[in-house]
Specification:
single chain, 235 residues, 9 strands, alpha/beta, two-stranded antiparallel ribbon
Length: 235
């Protein structure tokens, strides 16, 4: 979804629903569609959007509100049956503990690069299993991060889907496999990927390419989005 004001016009709601409807029509009734609100939608408009999307039988809705505002999730969850996902901005099992206790999140999305690596996220996944909550690790990152996620997926019964960024639009000359010496390490077929079985995490890094990119350098910052009135919007 694009940015919405705390209370906004319904033409933006209509536009978001139209995009989902086009995707549903294109892929048919049995392909999973996840819609990422990305915390860009405030509580009043999240309620409206969730209700309008219910008929499209979504796989899940991600971050319908920011993690800081998750007291709204109980009300939002009551509006329909679509599973709710959250967690890329939570950083330890203690952050997730209260999420499990609240009982309204169906899928958690810890990021292994932010939430303590394989060991901490394995503990988070085990806690989630005890609450009958699914895990979908957050990973729009590089080959080491994805390989680590796949190791977690392999040993966690409740991991059901894995985010990855192969070929994603913002990674020109910086794609996931650009940094891997063994380009076939992630072998995708029919929506499934083989778990890398080489030494360590199974990924061999092209160190010369890493050095080349390091010489160029970067200063990545979150995009700055603004509403029409010039105020800051959640990106």
């Amino acid at each position: 979804t694009e940015e919405l004001q705390i209370v906004d016009s319904h033409d933006k709601i209509d536009a978001a629903v139209e995009r989902v409807a086009m995707v549903r029509e294109a892929v048919g009734p049995n392909i999973g569609i996840a819609v990422d609100f990305h915390g860009r939608v405030h509580r009043p408009m999240a309620r409206a959007l969730v209700k309008e999307l219910e008929s499209y039988r979504l796989m899940f809705i991600e971050e319908p509100v920011l993690s800081e505002n998750r007291e709204a999730l109980k009300e939002i969850a009551a509006l329909g049956s679509t599973p709710i996902a959250l967690g890329e901005r939570l950083y330890s099992r203690w952050d997730f503990k209260s999420v499990f206790e609240e009982g309204v999140v169906d899928i958690i999305q810890p990021d292994l690069s932010h939430a303590g690596g394989i060991t901490e996220c394995r503990k988070i996944a085990a806690m989630a299993e005890a609450y009958d909550v699914a895990v979908a690790p957050h990973c729009p990152l590089g080959p080491i991060a994805l390989a680590a996620c796949l190791q977690l997926d392999a040993v966690s019964y409740n991991c059901f889907i894995q985010e990855q960024s192969l070929g994603i639009h913002y990674n020109a000359a910086n794609d996931l496999l650009d940094y891997a010496a063994n380009k076939d390490v992630f072998r995708y077929e029919d929506g499934y990927v083989a778990i890398p079985d080489g030494p360590g995490l199974g990924v061999e890094i092209d160190e010369d390419y890493v050095k080349e990119r390091a010489r160029e350098g970067h200063r990545w910052r979150n995009p700055i989005w603004r509403h029409k009135d010039g105020s800051f919007a959640e990106w």
